[in-house]
Design goal:
The structure holds two protein chains of two kinds. Chain A is α/β, with parallel strands linked by helices. Chain A has helices at residues 21-24, 44-47, 85-93, 105-112, 123-133, 164-172, 176-181, 184-194, and strands at residues 6-14, 70-73, 97-100, 117-120, 139-143, 148-151, 157-159. In chain A, strand 3 (97-100), helix 4 (105-112) and strand 4 (117-120) form a beta-alpha-beta unit. The longest helix of chain B is centred in the first third of the chain and has 17 residues, at 77-93. In chain B, strands 5-4-3-6-7 form a five-stranded parallel beta sheet, with helices on one face. A five-stranded parallel beta sheet of chain B has the order 17-16-15-18-19. A four-stranded parallel beta sheet of chain B has the order 11-10-9-12. Classes of the chains: A alpha/beta, B alpha/beta. Bound molecules: iron/sulfur cluster.
């Protein structure tokens, strides 16, 4: 997994609440047996019209969202199905950071495990970012080590909370299974004790 | 000892490592696997040369891609590849699989309980958000992503931060003709689509105690639609009676011993939860959703809301977007909504009890003109049982299609889907945009309400039908 320390990039604004993983990646694209190549299907039903053309009215297709690597979204982002194809698609499309007031639990975990940083900020700060970014290119710097977000021009500055364990994993790009296997003795002892 | 909730008891029992300020390393007692969320996990094991640590605690089935007609011949090449991949992976890693030909095949959350794999006190995971279903037995069961599936396959554990606990108390008695599906839809409508976020819910109260195991599963199944990590119900005699004599449940004296242990699991009198919500049972009516998330539902005598009814700017916008997608006018009576499809199926409502409930209403009636109605039993065992009881005849004579088991139209990633712009009364759990097919409009209802809609072509109060039948 790629380590994430300080990330600087353009933002895309998605002013919608309860965006579920069925929208992030519709089910007709869940049939692949690989982990890669899902970016082309991200938000498929919103991004493309039925004739296959890009829909210019969808936020990710705005010129201001070109090459965005930071996604700003509303409450309860990533709700619904546990499909990890959702973070795979976001990542493959180029997103490394998501900023929203709240997430579904499974989606949040899935992001961290794939090297995407999901930042929780209070609603008013998220709406301020949306205002700043919704009609023009808007670059943010996300500093995970110091848990800070800032821009150059509009004077936005915020700190965010993150579980220290998830933070360490993201900073180092660790593979969680190797960490766990260091506790093999504990797992074995547990299995003996409760006889599973 | 301080009184504890069942959630605390199961949690403490399963912590392999617990350090302050860190997620705990939790042992997993049962890992259910299906074809959509597992291929990349097995691939990961192969790449790193790791075995499945406990194949004996792992059980696989195929359900999402399986066609419900001619299930042996999958025409979609990519679907077929996913099915074949699971077959090969299970063989390579020594995992038991209920494949397409197995009499035990079915939707993952239906076969776990059916086979007795699901038991009180267990920690159960599956790469599927509706794993919360298994909580009906007093198990701590939750959905995980594919990285976590790989992690559990390799280590039989998961890193999890301790959950917050919430009691969802359904107070008093349920009215006649109100079902488990109505309870959970009413709970989500009342408290919102993410009220459970970060919590494990325990459903309590007389109305819950009075439910069968199958009905309890319907409730726990939809905990995830409230954003909860899991939902469960303390086990009782109803639970133990259901489990007796199932394949993976111990027999004889060992069973009695288990029951004694299981009894200890129930939440202690006076135990404290982090949060508590209460819904009076007698305010619950048969429910119908009108929008594109499961909280957007009202009782059968309600109307479609106005965007202005939203309590915040965000909610107003959400209502507006949902109504646009659903092509519904504010103020429309729910009973005036006509449907073109009726889907009786999914891990929420496709157990034998659900089919019996629907059949009661269907018997001797005909599906209304212009409606396509189908029954997709949740498992091959459910199908067989229904056929033994002659329910398939009841449905077929009324004009329903009678299918093999699978996820089917619940998510439309197989040949079954709702065409663009058409409306479906569905017993499944998600009414998201495009869930049942691109542009499909889903109304979530109970099996009885779906049956009523099939006969009348629009939503009806099934409690009134009951009366006419009996008078
Ligand atoms: S029936 Fe629907 S909700 Fe249940 S496991 Fe299948 S796709 Fe998921």
């Amino acid at each position: 997994m790629e380590a994430l320390t300080v990330h600087e990039g353009n933002t895309a604004v998605l002013e919608r609440a309860n965006v579920d993983t069925d929208q992030i990646i519709p089910k007709q694209f869940l049939k692949r047996v690989e982990r890669t190549g899902f970016g082309q299907f991200l938000f498929f039903d919103w991004r493309f019209k039925s004739d296959g053309e890009e829909d210019p009215s969808f936020e990710l297709n705005y010129p201001s969202a070109a090459n965005a690597s930071i996604l700003i979204a509303d409450h309860n982002f990533g709700s619904g199905s546990s499909r990890e194809h959702a973070p795979w698609a976001l990542q493959d499309y180029g997103f490394r950071v998501i900023i929203a007031p709240s997430y579904s639990d499974i989606f949040y975990n899935n992001c961290v495990k794939n090297g995407i940083l999901p930042v929780r900020l209070p609603e008013d700060q998220v709406y301020e970012l949306m205002q700043n970014g919704n009609d023009k290119e808007y670059h943010l710097t996300v500093d995970l080590q110091n848990q800070q977000i800032s821009d150059k021009d509009a004077g936005f500055q915020a700190t965010f909370e993150i579980d220290p364990y998830w933070k360490e994993m993201l900073l180092n790009g660790w593979d969680e299974i190797s960490i766990t296997l260091q506790y093999e003795e504990d797992i074995e002892a547990y299995e003996k004790r409760v006889k599973v | 000892m301080k009184p504890r909730t069942i959630i605390d008891k199961i949690w403490n029992e399963h912590a392999v490592r617990a350090e302050a300020g860190k997620p705990n390393l939790m042992y997993v007692d049962l890992h259910m696997v299906h074809e959509v969320t597992s291929p990349q996990a097995f691939e990961g094991l192969r790449l790193s040369g790791r075995p499945v640590r406990r194949p004996d605690l792992t059980f696989a089935t195929m359900d999402h891609n399986v066609p419900t007609l001619n299930r042996e011949s999958i025409t979609d090449a990519i679907s077929k590849k996913q099915i074949d991949t699971l077959f090969d992976n299970c063989r390579e890693f020594g995992v038991e699989l209920a494949d397409i030909h197995s009499p035990n095949n079915g939707i993952v959350h239906i076969i776990g309980p059916e086979l007795g794999l699901t038991q009180p006190g267990k920690t159960i995971v599956c790469g599927d958000s509706h794993t919360s279903t298994h909580g009906a037995f007093g198990a701590l069961a939750f959905g995980i992503g594919t990285s976590e599936v790989e992690h559990v396959l390799a280590t039989q554990t998961l890193w999890q931060s301790p959950p917050k606990t919430m009691e969802v108390h359904v107070d008093g008695r349920l009215g006649t003709g109100v079902t488990a599906k109505d309870i959970i839809l009413a709970i989500i409508a009342k408290f919102g689509v993410d009220f459970g976020s970060g919590y494990v819910l325990e459903y309590t109260g007389e109305a819950i105690r009075g439910l069968t195991m199958e009905e309890r599963m319907t409730i726990c199944n939809m905990s995830i639609e409230a954003g909860a990590r899991a939902g469960l119900i303390s086990p009782d005699q109803v639970t133990f009676d259901y489990l007796k004599d199932r394949r993976f449940v111990p027999e004889g004296a060992e069973f009695d011993e288990k029951v004694e242990q299981w009894r200890q699991l129930a939440t202690d009198e006076g135990a404290e939860y982090d949060e508590r919500v209460v819904i009076p049972a007698d305010e619950i009516e048969p429910m119908v959703t009108w929008g594109t998330n499961p909280s957007q539902g009202v009782g059968i005598h309600g109307t479609v809301p106005y965007p202005e009814d939203g309590k915040s700017a965000t909610e107003k916008k959400v209502i507006k977007t949902s109504l646009d997608y659903m092509a519904l006018e504010p103020g429309t009576k729910i009973t005036d909504i006509h449907v073109q499809h009726v889907f009786l199926g999914s891990c929420t409502n496709a157990r034998i009890g659900d089919l019996r409930e629907a059949a009661k209403i269907i018997r001797g009636n005909k599906v209304a003109d212009g409606i396509r109605a189908m029954v997709v039993p949740g498992s091959q065992q459910v199908k067989l049982q229904a056929e033994e009881e002659g329910l398939d005849q009841v449905f077929k004579e009324a004009g329903f299609e009678w299918r093999d088991s699978g996820c089917s139209m619940c998510l439309g990633m197989n040949p079954d889907f709702v065409p663009e712009g058409e409306r479906c009364a569905s017993t499944s759990n998600r009414n998201f945009e495009g869930r049942q097919g691109k542009g499909a409009r889903t109304h979530l209802v109970s099996p009885a309400m779906a049956a009523g809609a099939a006969i009348y072509g629009h939503f009806v109060d099934v409690r009134k039908l009951d009366q006419t039948v009996s008078s």
